[in-house]
Amino acid sequence: MRNRASNTLSKGKIRQSWSKYNLYNLQRFRSPPTTNRTFFQQKWSAKAVSRAYHGEQVREGQWKRMFNHRIRSVIPMNASDLAADDGSLASAGRGSGLETKDGDATYQNRRIPYTHMAFAPLERRLDVAIFRALFASSARQARQFVIHGAVTVNGQKMRHPSYLLNPGDLFQVEPDRVMFATGTPKDKAERREGRLAQRKPEGEEESKEAEEEKVEEESKETPKEDTKETLKALMQQAKSIMSSGKDTLPAKRKQELRGFQKAVRRVLSRSASSTVLTDSLEAQFSELTLLLNAKRAEKKPEKKDEKKDKRRSDDDAVASKGDEDVEVSSKLSEAFEQAAQGNDVDASELDDEEFDTLKRALVQMRDNPIDNTKPYATPWRPRDYMSAFTFIPRYLEVNQNICAAVYLRHPVARPGSAEVPTPFGESVATPAYGWYLRRRW
Amino acid sequence: MAPRIQSRSVSNTLLPYLTSTSSSSSTTSVPSLFSTPSQCLSRQFSATAAPQTKLRRQMFEWLSTEGAALKHHIPGETNYLTRLKQRGGSDGPDSRRPFPNNQNFISEPILSEELRNEVYNRVVTKGQSVRVVSVDLGIDMQRIAAVVRLVELEQRQRKQGKPLALPYARAIHEMVPTTPLAEQGERQQFHEPINDLPAHPLTGTQIFYPVPESRSFTRVEAGRVFSAAPAMEHSEAGAISHPSDLAEKIIENPNATGWVGKGDNRRQILQPADVRIPHPHLVSLERDRITNPKERLAVADAHAKRLERQDAAEKRRRERAAARREQMQTIVSPEESRFDYRIKDTVYTAETTGKDGRAPWAIGRRYGVPHRDRTRGEVKIPTRVDA
Questions:
Q1: Highest mean pLDDT pick, A98-107, A427-436, B33-42
Q2: Are B272 and A382 inside 8 Å of each other by CB?
Q3: Where is the composition biased (Basic and acidic residues) (chain A) (predicted)?
């Protein structure tokens, strides 16, 4: 199927996509005018506009067969209301309940937006559901994932994007594909590094070995250097990683992370078991935490600096939240520097917060490592303008860790809200629904 | 992103001389509008049209000014287009709307990681029933079942050492509103409404049904009117003090609803909302509370007993159904065979094999009827995948 779903600026169509072109189109979209236009024209343009968003990959005839004029809706019931009244109050008087003196209705009368649900049958499609679960950056990409065999339904590989999910179906996408779809793309240098890494796996190993040798040499050169010094340096680097904000360039950030990785290696090479270095990152991490715990056991219960701010940056993302947090983290690092400069400070006297920071830096390094063989920029960051499109409708239950989701039920309308995500208002939804009703009138 | 850079370089030195009149106008008018002076210099002698259209220029202008706020997410907050459009008070229900034009779609909160684990612990470790957990945490029963399934899958994958998308998960939980797990001693925030009543298609019709004003017309009777069933006998109607009385009876025996119509038109009588909601026992609990407002303990006790009774009834029913299914078919599993054979008695009726006994959906091969996957227009996309 030819992909006609381009995000052209001249047409200004809204698509199921996270691209910035689409964001701009969404921003400048105005509902088609209705004055001086016949009903046919109004319905036509409403249909055209909404079909460009809802299932443009589905042929019109196919969609017409899927369309159903009956729309699922649901009324949230209150148990105490039901218990208080057996229905005779609502049917009292002339059949619509007795009028109250103050004139307000006993039942809330928010309208159910039925026509916003016109395209609900399309939400059952596998490709659309993958897009809605935030596993792909566009419905087209989701479709490609399905066709390329990266998607399973109930544990079986499913290669039909048009598979209609049944309530209770569990679908899963390969996490690497999801990270690729939602992550920042690689820049030129990273692409090149990735190519090189793939082309010469042997050379890479050699260079790794050389690096390790270098590390060993270093350790030989300074055998009498205290572990406390290295631990201090490690702490410093962890601190800088955790505190760097949004403003820091990715390249700079990467350098810091690399430095941290090296420092971790150095510490590990000093420790007794050198086999850890060749093991996976997981083993390195557990070894390092073990080391830290040992240090902590030695530590005396001595509270050092009271002036330290209690607040801490939870994550690098949180740290970048505002100026306050940056200030706090800088204070923290200052305090740490002061502590580090004094010679009497022992490495084993690191306090809880510092250990916490170090641990979090390690966890981040383990979970989100630099790896140029991945198809996305590493460490993984969400792609630009992603947050403007992130929402998860209620009819899906998603587990992001394993990139799996369950299609709980068909989308429903309820008073005041419709579950089908559509960027159009009432003035487009109703005529579009009317267009597909036309043979039934 | 920087504006598109012109890829073609002008190699023909004669070009500016040949098309001097036409190019001079374009160079003076177009670049002055959008580009930096260095760019102007670079395409001084170009005769090709500017690669930057007006729309592209406007887009990048917007992305660098207003749209820049949407480029990165704000942890713990939503960052939708609607926020930009509002200018000013960003908090409130409007900050939850991803689409500025659509008033009726809001981004609903998702379960936080801790709440998800709590659900799993309660159901799997503590062995609480899905119904109880649903009422306690305000989470739909289907969602609880899904959460248990997904957490189990996650644990299995962690054990197997399969790759996980942890940074992605963290980023999503920062972007989307979440329902947190309550701290110790605090009241749990409910995730979603749990007693949703699906609108039945029969209730879509408008019916004129005259009833004397002196008579009380309840939900049970309204359901009968909608499904065109005759009115109840007086004795039958008198036995029902409240529509929720029916709920327990129907949980015991789902066929107790009563039927109307003949043949293809045979259908169940529409039941009142008290029966059709997912948690009918909550209505009974509320009724007990209304009648005995001071005896809290007794009410709670009665409620626990009722739940136990209903669970037992449901379990019995499920067992009966399983037994019946087992009786219908014999499973033969020969030794050294990869397959189990499920043998059922054929039912030879018009529904199962068609009027002439050769319907395409009938079991077995029939002379002159092509195999199903050979017939024209047959869709081979599966309609279901068994778990």
A1: A427-436
A2: no
A3: 185-202, 297-315
The pLDDT tens digits for A81-107 are 999 988 888 888 777 777 766 655 555
Residue B213, Cβ density class (10 Å: 0-12 exposed, 13-18 middle, ≥19 buried): exposed
Query: Taking a contact as any Cβ pair under 8 Å apart, which residues of chain B between 132 and 161 contact chain A?
Result: 140, 142-143, 145-147, 149-151, 153-154, 157
Which residue in A381, A246, A379, A237 sits closest to A325, CA to CA?
A: A246
Report the chain B residue with the minimal C-alpha distance to residue A177.
B165
A138: which strand partners?
Answer: A17
Q: Do A422 and B105 touch (CB under 8 A)?
A: yes
Residue, of B161 and A231, whose pLDDT is higher:
B161
The answer to the question of residue B228 being in a domain is: yes
| B303 contacts chain A (CB < 8 A) | no
- pLDDT surpassing 70 at residue A228: no
- Tell whether A177 and A251 lie within a shared domain: no
Alpha-carbon distance A436 to nearest alpha carbon in chain B (angstroms): 20
Contact A79 B285 (CB under 8 A): yes
Chain A residue with the nearest C-alpha to that of B142 = A408
* A105 CB within 8 Å of a chain B CB: no
Chain B CB within 8 Å of residue A432 CB: no
The string of DSSP codes covering B219-231 is HHHHHHHHTTPPP
Q: By the 8 A CB rule, do A15 and A52 touch?
A: yes
The owner of tokens 């340096």 is A233
Nearest to B177 by CA among B100, B103, B76, B84: B76
> For B313, what's the count of Cα atoms within 13 Å in the CB-facing half-sphere?
14
Does the pLDDT of residue A316 top 50, yes or no? no
List the domain range (segments joined by +) for residue B35: 15-65
User: Which of these three, A313, A333, A367, is where a domain ends?
Assistant: A367
Cα A178 to Cα A67, A363, A382: the distances in Å are 30, 21, 11
